[in-house]
Amino acid sequence: MSLAIFCAVLCAAFLHAGWNAIVKRGGDTLLTTILVTGWAAVLSALALPWLPPPAPASWPWLAASTVLQAGYYVLVARAYQAADMSLSYPLMRGCAPLLVALAGSLAFGERLPAGGWLGIAVVSTGIVGMAGGGSRRHLRLPLSIAALIATYTLVDARGARLSGNAASYTLWLFLLSGLPLPLWALATGRDRLCRHLRDNWGRGLLGGFGTTASYGIALWAMTRAPVAIIAALRETSILFALLISAFVLKERIDRRRVLAAGLIVAGVFLLRLG
User: Fold this and answer.
1) How far is CA 84 from CA 35, 56, 78, 204, 220, in A?
2) Which tens digits make up the pLDDT trace of 126-174?
3) Which of 97, 154, 192, 270 could form a disulfide linkage to 232, CB 3.0–4.6 angstroms apart?
4) CA 254 to CA 59: how far, in whole Å?
């Protein structure tokens, strides 16, 4: 992995933690998520005329991911209603890399060096360690989201590689997956959505840019480096999420999670050296 790709994925990690914090702090997490996905669709629609369409071979993967992503947004909103970001985020982002590594080695035939596997294990152990101490009631939903993340990561890695243009694939994905929730909200509670949009349009726009840019960078990186390593490195977003949880959301971060953050940093270095 080149230094440029490494730094780009770290930037994507920061953007991902940022838009999740926007959802968590938005009061009504579902409506804020709808604003984020809606703005992501608008931004994508504005950029798509300047890009070629993705190759037809990628369309089935794009359709599958659209369904998975729409479900993901709903579950993320529910997770942040039930528990702190410093608990939910590590679990749902932290369990995914090992699932991706195991499945990716089978789906893409990628042979990772020993350092890469060790880095993935250390990063994942650190992130899961951050979530230690949570009640079972608060763990089920994030763990289910982790399986969903692993699934759509593999689907999109294949789709982006077949598309011939990772940026075009990403924008079509955010356009298609960003439409169902806003349309549903308009049909079931137009006045409520409009009030939330009036008060939070800037927050939604910032989140929409963050989610689109974050995933676009990750998919681009997956076309140039092993999927498992990119997926694991992107999960260092938990470090940014930990800082945001403590200093912006004012959540209590215990020593266990601080020590787990050290494991993540060590895992990042192993990934870079691998």
Assistant:
1) 21, 41, 11, 20, 31
2) 877 766 656 666 678 888 998 899 899 889 988 988 999 988 999 999 9
3) 97
4) 45
Question: Scanning the structure block, which residue is given the tokens 């914090």?
Answer: 21
- 81 Rama class: left (phi>0) / alpha (psi -120 to 50) / beta: alpha
Locate all alpha helices (DSSP H) within 223-236, ordered by sequence: 227-234
Owner of token pair 């910032």: 206
Q: How many angstroms separate the CA atoms of 269 and 233, rounded?
A: 10
Q: How many Å apart are CA 100 and CA 93, to the nearest integer? A: 11
**Residues 234 and 16 sit within 8 Å (Cβ to Cβ):** yes
Phi, psi of 135 (to 5 degrees): -75, 155
For 167-214, what is each residue's pLDDT tens digit? 899 999 999 999 999 999 999 889 999 999 998 999 999 999 999 999
Total-model pTM: 0.85
CA-wise closest residue to 120 among 263, 8, 24 = 263
Closest listed residue to residue 185, CA positions, set 47, 89, 73, 63: 73
Q: Determine the residue type at 9.
A: V
Give the Cα separation of 114 and 125 in Å (integer).
16
249 three-class SS: coil
Structure-block tokens of residue 256: 């266990």
DSSP state letters, 78-139: HHHHHS-HHHHHHHHHHSHHHHHHHHHHHHS-----HHHHHHHHHHHHHHHHHTTT--HHHH
CA distances to 9, 10, 43, 50, 136 from 96, rounded to whole Å, are 16, 17, 27, 33, 18
